[in-house]
């Protein structure tokens, strides 16, 4: 901590100007990439990642989500580089100097800076994509017109979008996360560039943070569900408006399966499986990160909607909630207090203490959500996927029945669900995966990262050596933690051949991975981790 003594005691409400001279750059919040860690492989790149408590290594600040402030910055960079920040306005001045201003109050973790060889292209009236020159065409093609559609639906549901612009920055392939909702400028993985718009709905989650998380913020990281549970609910409301309820139910079912996996791995009664987590002093909030605030949080918000019993009334409540707490940092007590105040008839009925569903139990008892929203509408998309997986797992293939199913019209989550079923049934009888690969180039030759991950897992689980090169290619093409670690686990848990593949791939790709991901992989492969 930086302690500053003032020359004399200030009066309450007095404005002070404090000038701190400091140097930064070595800390965990500032990432320096060598040219080989970028897509263009020509020039270095730097970016900052503030969430949860890393921006204290980037600049002196009150590094807690309970404090919000406006900011401005002047950034001078070398020729041939561009700087961008999460700010409402920016201008380029002489000497390659950029001036940024954020006119709305935000918490410290949402201040972000990128410096690199990057260019931009407009994709809507208030949106542009930023990327390295070699990715900009693909980014423009993938996102042209779609962001505005999502923003308009979001505004209709949750009220005005207050941040001015909504730009997306495609990070270098080594960026270890899916996305980071920095206001005005969301950072995303280049894995979203599937070439066929099949992953654009991932951006709906980051757009939803414009209301939940960025505008109304959890005051402490122990109540992270206020950011993520509400954002999951908002994302699925937008998705329902755009893609319909069956598809959204299918996507939510994949989320529920992730929560099940997480709780099975940790044990349901693990203290992290509560919505209100106690983060002891000295514990890094990042180390408490898991599926619970997202998916159990989503279930709690869905339960509140279920208590109201009318979607348009609950939508109106969400809009009033955002309006009441915008630009503030709040606790779960504020949220639930406002809910009961907004619906006095529910308060009258004592809905906060229905046995088994008490608000206190939701917040403070670990374990599986007491209420699960009904996702049965997704069954119309799940059933055909389950039946097709059954056909492929049979000892003798019924090709007539298989050929009668046309998967060309299936969207990403239906294909993902199908592949998850095939993976569960793997290893399949001899020769089946080879035929499946040949029959569905849409899957086995996909550019979509969610499909590639699962196809690689199927290839490994079935020892399909002819396609091991696809595993290698995928790991060479990106360094996202969510895709990289499961594949190394699968290779290391497999045959001699897959273990050799793991070692060979890692020694070739290690320099292009984020240092945290490098260390996680070393742990899996039993190698000593870097400091």
Automatic annotation (TrEMBL):
Keywords: Aminopeptidase, Hydrolase, Metal-binding, Metalloprotease, Protease, Zinc. GO terms for molecular function: metalloaminopeptidase activity; zinc ion binding. A peptide binds at residues 49-51, 176-181, 480-482. The gene is Rnpep. The active site is at residues 206, 294. Zn(2+) binds at residues 205, 209, 228. The keyword Metal-binding applies. One of its GO terms (biological process) is proteolysis. Belongs to the peptidase M1 family. Binds 1 zinc ion per subunit. Its cofactor is Zn(2+). Residues 380-525 form the Peptidase M1 leukotriene A4 hydrolase/aminopeptidase C-terminal domain. The keyword Metal-binding applies. This is AMPB Aminopeptidase. Gene3D superfamilies: 3.30.2010.30, Neutral Protease Domain 2, Peptidase M1, leukotriene A4 hydrolase/aminopeptidase C-terminal domain, tricorn interacting facor f3 domain. It comes from Loxia leucoptera. GO terms for cellular component: extracellular space.
């Amino acid at each position: 901590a930086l302690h500053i003594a003032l020359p004399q005691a200030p009066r309450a409400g007095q404005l002070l100007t404090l000038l701190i001279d400091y140097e930064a750059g070595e800390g965990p919040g500032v990432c320096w990439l060598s040219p080989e860690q970028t897509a263009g492989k020509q020039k270095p790149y730097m970016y900052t990642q503030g969430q949860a408590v890393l921006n204290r290594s980037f600049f002196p600040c009150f590094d807690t989500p309970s404090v919000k402030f406006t900011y401005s910055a002047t950034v001078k960079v070398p020729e041939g580089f561009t700087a961008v920040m999460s700010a409402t306005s920016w201008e380029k001045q002489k000497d390659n100097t950029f001036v940024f201003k954020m006119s709305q109050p935000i918490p410290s973790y949402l201040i972000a800076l990128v410096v690199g060889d990057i260019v931009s292209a407009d994709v809507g009236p208030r949106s542009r994509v930023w990327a390295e020159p070699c990715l900009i065409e693909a980014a423009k093609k993938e996102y042209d017109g779609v962001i505005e559609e999502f923003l308009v639906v979001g505004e209709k549901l949750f009220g005005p979008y207050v941040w001015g612009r909504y730009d997306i920055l495609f990070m270098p392939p080594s960026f270890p996360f899916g996305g980071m909702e920095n206001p005005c400028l969301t950072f995303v993985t280049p894995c979203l560039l599937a070439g066929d718009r099949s992953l654009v709905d991932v951006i709906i989650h980051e757009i939803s943070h414009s209301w939940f998380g960025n505008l109304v913020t959890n005051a402490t990281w122990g109540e992270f569900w206020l950011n993520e549970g509400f954002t999951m609910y908002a994302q699925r409301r937008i998705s329902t408006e755009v893609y319909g309820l069956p598809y959204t139910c299918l996507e939510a079912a994949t989320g529920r399966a992730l929560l099940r996996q997480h709780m099975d791995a940790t044990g349901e009664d693990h203290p992290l499986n509560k919505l209100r987590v106690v983060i002891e002093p000295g514990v890094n909030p990042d180390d408490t990160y898991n599926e619970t605030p997202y998916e159990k949080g989503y279930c709690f918000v869905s339960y509140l909607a279920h208590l109201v019993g009318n979607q348009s009334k609950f939508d109106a409540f969400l809009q009033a909630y955002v309006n009441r707490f915008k630009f503030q940092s709040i606790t779960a007590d504020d949220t639930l207090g406002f809910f009961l105040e907004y619906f006095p008839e529910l308060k009258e009925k004592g809905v906060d203490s229905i046995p088994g569903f008490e608000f206190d139990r939701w917040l403070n008892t670990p374990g599986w959500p007491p209420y699960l929203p009904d996702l049965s509408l997704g069954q119309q998309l799940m059933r055909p996927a389950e039946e097709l997986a059954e056909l492929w797992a049979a000892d003798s293939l019924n090709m007539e029945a298989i050929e009668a199913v046309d998967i060309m019209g299936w969207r990403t989550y239906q294909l993902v669900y199908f592949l998850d079923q095939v993976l569960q049934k793997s290893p399949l009888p001899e020769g089946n995966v080879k035929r499946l690969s040949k029959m569905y180039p849409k899957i086995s030759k996909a550019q979509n990262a969610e499909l590639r991950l699962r196809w690689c897992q199927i290839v490994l689980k079935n020892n399909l050596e002819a396609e091991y090169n696809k595993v290698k290619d995928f790991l060479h093409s990106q360094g996202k933690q969510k895709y990289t670690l499961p594949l190394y686990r699968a290779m290391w848990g497999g045959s001699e051949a897959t273990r050799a593949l793991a070692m060979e791939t890692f020694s070739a790709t290690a320099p292009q991975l984020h240092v945290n991901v490098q260390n996680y992989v070393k742990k899996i492969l039993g190698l000593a981790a870097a400091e």
